[in-house]
Design brief:
Number of domains: 2
Number of strands: 15
Helix content: 25-40%
CATH topology of the largest domain: Rossmann fold
CATH architecture of the largest domain: 3-Layer(aba) Sandwich
Order of helices and strands: EEEEHEEHEHHHEHEHEEHHHEHEEHE
Structural class: alpha/beta
Distance between the termini: 16 Å
Shape: elongated
Largest sheet: 6 strands, mixed
Radius of gyration: 23 Å
Strand order of the largest sheet: 7-8-9-4-10-11
Bound molecules: adenosine-5'-triphosphate, magnesium ion
Length: 375
């Protein structure tokens, strides 16, 4: 796949492995919530027999933001996020949380750090022998908080996640979405400043996923909690993350504002993740080829946002092409709160038609991406 950005350069996208700040406007604190500085993780011995799961990651996670890290299975996402709370040791470089070098902490320091960092998981990790109330109370018990304080703390947390009436239920009596809500309440019990989420919605159906993402968004806004989440789904990032980093084979290949990365993907991994989120009809997906054959049509995604969203460009494109245009798929969505439309069209791959199209894109600033070729 190739991308054209006629007349339009990727605005805030940083180069591969570049750093980005995701502090929301107005945040003045100078120390980022999380800073990966050339951070790496090698499992097993150095040299042969070992495996580098995360390599040379430079990334800063801004205070109060929701930042997503997206990548395929095995890309190193879980390893990377677990380096933040010391569940994995850092074997090169550094990870700083609120300015503190995680790798330099002793046992006491790590325990105190983990009280400041909540974590939620794909399979919830609730204790089946404990009620919802007692699951949420667990981190407080471990921290040595007295029973009376625990009672005043857990009730409001269950209310916050909408499960005030399930205090006495056991995990086996709860739905997946309800279990994750309990997981979230438990993660918030020690008033953390950072919430880590490892594929927290991957085991849930789309509707429940949306409700959990809404809850995370509300917690982020109401409590000012910084959220760092990892996922393999563009949909999740698009729904709640203001900033995103794309990880591939242990390296960050692209990062920036979600809107910029989504509208101007710079790396093939990002494009692949986006293409799978585009929801091309199956019949179309199965016929797309990377190279043109004789008489083939080029399949192009047109991206509308900002100014271009309000101009009648598609009609003008048909006129400019002087060749027929098929509209194959389209959607108007919202990314990190901004409207965004995409339209998948095909037209003749004849060089003169393609040249006229590219000239039109350059003149109008319409962002496009060549998805491939169809017969
Ligand atoms: N304890 C370990 N020892 C050796 N290799 C490991 C270990 N844990 C993970 N790995 C390897 O590191 C790589 C990254 O694993 P990781 O679990 O971080 O990926 P991931 O992106 O979270 O994948 P998924 O989406 O499937 O959860 C994988 O190739 C994995 O096999
Ligand atoms: Mg994982």
């Amino acid at each position: 796949m190739t991308t054209q950005h006629p007349g339009q350069q990727a605005a805030a996208n940083t180069a591969a492995n570049g750093q980005f700040r995701s502090d929301p406007a107005g945040a003045t604190h100078s120390v980022p919530m999380v800073a990966f500085q050339g951070a790496g993780k090698r499992y097993g011995p150095a040299g042969e027999g070992g495996f580098t799961a995360v390599e040379s990651v430079d990334l800063t996670v801004g205070r109060g933001a929701i930042t997503g890290i997206i990548g395929r299975s095995g890309a190193g996402k879980s390893t990377l996020i677990r380096m933040v709370n010391g569940l994995e040791t850092v074997t090169s470089g550094k990870v700083l949380v609120d300015g503190v070098d995680v790798g330099a902490l002793g046992e006491d320091g790590l325990r105190s750090l983990r009280r400041q960092i909540g974590m939620i998981f794909q399979h919830f990790n609730l204790l089946s022998s404990r009620t919802a109330f007692d699951n949420v109370a667990l981190p407080l018990e471990i921290a040595g908080v007295d029973k009376k304080t625990i009672r005043t703390k857990v009730g409001p947390l269950l209310d916050l996640v909408g499960l005030g009436n399930k205090a006495g239920s056991y995990p086996s009596e709860l739905s997946g979405g309800q279990k994750q809500r309990i997981g979230i309440a438990r993660a918030l019990a020690t008033d953390p400043k950072l919430l880590l989420s490892d594929e927290a919605t991957s085991a849930l159906d789309p509707e429940t996923t949306q409700s959990i993402l809404e809850l995370l968004k509300r917690i982020n806004a109401e409590l000012g909690l910084t959220v760092l989440l990892i996922t393999h789904e563009m949909e999740v990032v698009k729904t709640i993350a203001s900033h995103v980093a794309v990880i591939d084979a242990g390296r960050i290949v692209e990062s920036g504002r979600t809107f910029d990365v989504y509208t101007h993907p710079q790396h093939d991994t990002t494009r692949t993740l986006l293409a799978s989120a585009l929801k091309l009809p199956q019949w179309l997906r199965s016929t797309v080829k990377p190279q043109p054959s004789a008489g083939a049509r080029v399949l192009v995604r047109l991206v509308f946002f900002g100014d271009t969203a309000f101009k009648p460009l598609t009609g003008r494109l048909v006129a400019e092409l002087d060749s027929d245009l098929n509209i194959l798929a389209g959607a108007i969505e919202e990314i990190a709160g901004e409207p965004f439309g995409s339209l998948v069209v095909s037209y003749s791959a004849e060089p003169d038609v393609v040249a006229r199209a590219n000239r039109f894109y350059a003149e109008t600033g319409l962002a496009t991406e060549v998805l491939g070729y169809v017969a």
